[in-house]
Amino acid sequence: MTETSKLTLSSGEMQLVTNTEWILTKRIIIGKVNLFFGAVAVAMQDIVEAEREYLPAAAIMSAPKIAKGENYGQLPYVLLDYPRCFEKENIFAIRTMFWWGNFFSCTLHLSGSYKTMFKQALIKNSTALQQNNLYLCISNNEWEHHFEPDNYVAANTIDIGEINKILSQQHFIKVAAKFSLHQWHEMDVLLQKSFSDVLHLLKY
Question: In terms of Cα–Cα distance, which of 44, 53, 117 is closest to 81?
Fold first, then answer.
């Protein structure tokens, strides 16, 4: 293949490269997600304040952080981390994610001392995982966010014994709620509810 042929565009690619509207629309959408996550973060802070008696001090003191990127699975994304305690060996975080073309999600992430601190509460509340249509991470990689079968399993598709086995044996715990992008107009309510739901899993 010559260098010139590598630069040849298909008809679809030519339509995109000569059209500025789609990339400008993409920037507008990402901007709206950023603003939306800012508003959601305020509501989340109110929820944390109401539940502070059983949460770690570091989590209560943390501030929301919004970040965006262009290349998770080669697609844009926006993250809201709150609460956020990311230490080398110990993690206590709830990550809300928008992933272009895929989903919104809300994920509780525990490792190290925080997993030890809350594992029994999660086991005690394991039926709530099923009732709230939550997912459990079964992967060894705690930094993957997709919901393919090698990464997450729906809690309502396995029995309580299997749920408790996952909670006990994984070196970290990730519990997530997933929402279709078609639910966009009700996402503020859905994300606030899922945030509250995963926090309540920690209440013994």
Answer: 44
Domain count, the chain: 1
- Taking 50 as the pLDDT cut, the residues of the chain under it are 1
The whole domain housing 129 covers: 8-200
User: What is the CA 54 to chain-centroid distance, rounded?
Assistant: 22
128-185: pLDDT as tens digits = 999 999 999 999 999 999 999 999 999 999 999 999 999 999 999 999 999 999 999 9
d(C-alpha 166, C-alpha 58), whole Å: 26
In a domain, 71, yes or no: yes
CA distance 107 to 173: 10
In a domain, 1, yes or no: no
Do the domain assignments include residue 3? no
Res 88: pLDDT: 86
Tokens read off for 136? 């459990």
Q: What angle do CA 5, 6, 10 make, to 5 degrees?
A: 85
Domain-located, residue 2:
no
Distance in angstroms (rounded) separating the CA atoms of residues 69 and 31: 12
* C-alpha–C-alpha distance, residues 153 and 147, integer Å: 8
Given a contact cutoff of 8 angstroms between Cβ atoms, the answer to whether 199 and 98 are in contact is: no
| Cα torsion through 78, 145, 163, 183, rounded to 10 | 50
Six-digit token string for 167: 């909670």
